[in-house]
């Protein structure tokens, strides 16, 4: 069986394949569901895949509160039919308030990592300036 080339993500030790299943255009709700169903049907061994999902941006807008971020990972895990994700990133933080991101969102992400629901955490920014 052919294997995909893998590269390390920064200095994390996490190796990612150069090719992946990109469900970002589907949004975290639909993408999580599609991926979760596929993984369940194919019975893929968990240690053979790297799964990421996002929080912060939702169908009805942005919410970077600790309560919503925490609820989001639980919802994603249920849709993915997994106990943990490898990467959880808070998406489009430029649409939030810096004070909330620093004092509420990032600590919530850290707690999620500490509970084992996400191995790695991060944030994404679409654009800071034109």
From TrEMBL:
One Pfam family hit: Aldo_ket_red
UniProt GO molecular function: L-galactose dehydrogenase activity
Source domain of life: Eukaryota
Domain NADP-dependent oxidoreductase stretches: 34-124
GO biological process: L-ascorbic acid biosynthetic process
Stored InterPro entries: AKR, NAD(P)_OxRdtase_dom_sf, NADP_OxRdtase_dom
Signal sequence, renumbered to the chain: none
Record-linked PANTHER family: GH17980P-RELATED
The protein, known as: NADP-dependent oxidoreductase domain-containing protein
Organism: Musa acuminata subsp. malaccensis
């Amino acid at each position: 069986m052919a294997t995909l080339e893998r590269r390390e993500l920064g200095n994390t030790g996490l190796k990612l394949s150069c090719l992946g299943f990109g469900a970002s255009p589907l949004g975290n709700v639909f993408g999580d569901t599609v991926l979760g169903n596929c993984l369940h049907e194919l019975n893929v061994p968990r240690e053979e895949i790297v799964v990421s999902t996002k929080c912060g941006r939702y169908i009805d807008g942005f919410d970077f509160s600790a309560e919503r971020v925490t609820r989001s990972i639980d919802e994603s895990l249920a849709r993915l039919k997994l106990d943990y994700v490898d990467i959880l990133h808070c998406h489009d933080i430029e649409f939030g308030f810096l004070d909330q991101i620093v004092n509420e969102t990032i600590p919530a992400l850290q707690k999620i990592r500490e509970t084992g629901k996400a191995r790695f955490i991060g944030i994404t920014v679409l654009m800071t300036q034109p």
